[in-house]
Specification:
Blueprint (H helix, E strand, L loop, with lengths): L2 H19 L2 H14 L3 H7 L4 E8 L2 E6 L5 E6 L4 H11 L8 E6 L5 E9 L6 H12 L7 E7 L8 E10 H13 L6 E3 L1 E2 L2 E2 L16 H72 L3 H11 L5 E7 L4 E8 L5 H5 L5 E6 L4 E3 L4 E10 L4 H9 L12
Parallel strand pairs: 1-4, 4-8
Antiparallel strand pairs: 1-2, 2-3, 5-7, 6-7, 9-10, 11-12, 12-15, 13-15, 14-15
């Protein structure tokens, strides 16, 4: 054992004792048993504990090997046989059992082990083995250097502030010859225990320095598989995260492209609004001013047939000017009154007689009539229609 493991051994032992003293092991054992009972027999056999305990016991000078929980022996041999024969008998009894799952416990006769029930303080529950060593001289006729011992906590009730434990003691000069004989025969045991019914009591009197150190390839394989599973989980999470980031980046690119298109649409909408405003303005201006054809048509209807026009103008401000000849030019003002398109008609300058035609030459100015508000609204509604422009004939 390395120095690091030796330094961690007390800490690990403390954790192990604390775990065993808690109610969690019993709960998980019950829960696991209930779950396993629901499985088919074949699945239960596949999921059963791999460690198969075999019990070795000396009876009347012969060694008997049986499986834990069964009373019939699997093998029996004499202690006088040579080591090779004994190992062959043991190997024959172990056929069909995985070498990694083979566990061998040496059962001592009941008279070889001293058992005492002690009442210890609850505070000593985490250090039962150490406290039992201190109490060895007082509770037994031996000291700690003369025996191998084990301590287990009992479920029986105890006084307040105390716990009931059982101390099991075997003399070294009793156990050491048995272990030496088995070691000489090439047989290694994993625990030293006492028989109980068809099984074992569940304690271990084997000295820690003589405990077998087994290599467990299956455990290493399981640990490697567990590490591979954890690695695959992290890889799967990393792949999922990478896919999410890629999808997010793609969505951000699409959002940026849509934002650019939205800006273009906003620019086009503003341009359309500006164009619509300009078109409405032109339509409003068109609706507010009289057309050249409309003014000429009204003048044609109101002027007598004996009068004609020589010149006609209509500027952007609605100012009308027209020049012509008429037999009686002064009467033209009365004819133009009430015109829907001409307002404030007046003569500009004096009326002169034309010797060539015998008629009166005149020049009049007027203002084009502005339409009513409803006519202006109608002009705004017709903003998309082309405007009629006037020209000087």
């Amino acid at each position: 054992m390395s120095a690091a493991m030796q330094s961690l051994r007390p800490l690990l032992d403390g954790w192990r004792r604390g775990w065993r003293a808690s109610p969690l092991p019993a709960f998980f054992a019950w829960w696991g048993g209930e779950l396993v009972a629901l499985l088919p027999p074949r699945w239960r056999a596949a999921l059963a504990d791999g460690a198969g305990w075999h019990l070795l016991q000396q009876v009347d000078g012969d060694w008997r090997l049986r499986r834990a929980g069964r009373s019939e022996p699997l093998a029996r041999w004499s202690d006088d046989l040579d080591p090779t024969t004994q190992q062959a008998e043991l190997a024959a009894a172990w056929q069909g059992t995985d070498p990694e799952d083979r566990r061998l416990a040496l059962l001592l006769p009941a008279h070889a082990v001293l058992r005492r029930v002690l009442q210890l303080p609850v505070a000593a529950r985490g250090k039962l083995h150490q406290v039992a060593g201190f109490e060895m001289d007082r509770q037994t006729p031996f000291n700690a250097a003369q025996v191998y011992y084990a301590v287990r906590e009992l479920a029986q009730p105890a006084a307040a502030g105390r716990c009931a434990v059982e101390l099991l003691v075997v003399r070294r000069d009793t156990l050491d010859p048995l272990l030496a004989r088995l070691q000489a025969s090439g047989i290694t045991v994993d625990a030293v225990d006492l028989p109980q019914d068809a099984g074992r009591l569940g304690v271990d009197l084997l000295p820690p320095e003589q405990a077998a150190h087994r290599t467990r390839p299956r455990l290493r394989l399981n640990l490697a598989l567990a590490a591979a599973c954890v690695l695959l989980v992290f890889l799967a999470l990393g792949s999922w995260l990478h896919n999410r980031e890629s999808a997010l980046a793609q969505m951000q690119t699409q959002v940026e492209a849509m934002r650019g298109k939205a800006q273009q649409v906003a620019v086009l909408r503003k341009q359309l609004q500006d164009d619509a405003g300009a078109a409405g303005f032109l339509a409003q201006r068109k609706a507010q001013r009289a057309t050249v054809l409309g003014v000429l048509l009204d003048l044609t209807r109101r002027l007598p047939s004996t009068a004609w026009l020589e010149r006609f103008t209509l500027d952007d401000n609605g100012q009308i000017g027209f020049q012509g000849q008429s037999p009686q030019a002064a009467k033209l003002l009365d004819l133009l009154k009430g015109s829907p398109v001409i307002d404030n008609a007046n003569f500009q300058g004096s009326i002169q007689s034309d010797p060539a035609t015998g008629k009166e030459r005149f020049y009049m100015v007027a203002q084009s009539h502005k339409p009513a508000p409803e006519h202006a609204d109608a002009g705004k509604a017709a903003a998309g229609q082309p405007a009629n422009s006037g020209s000087t004939p």
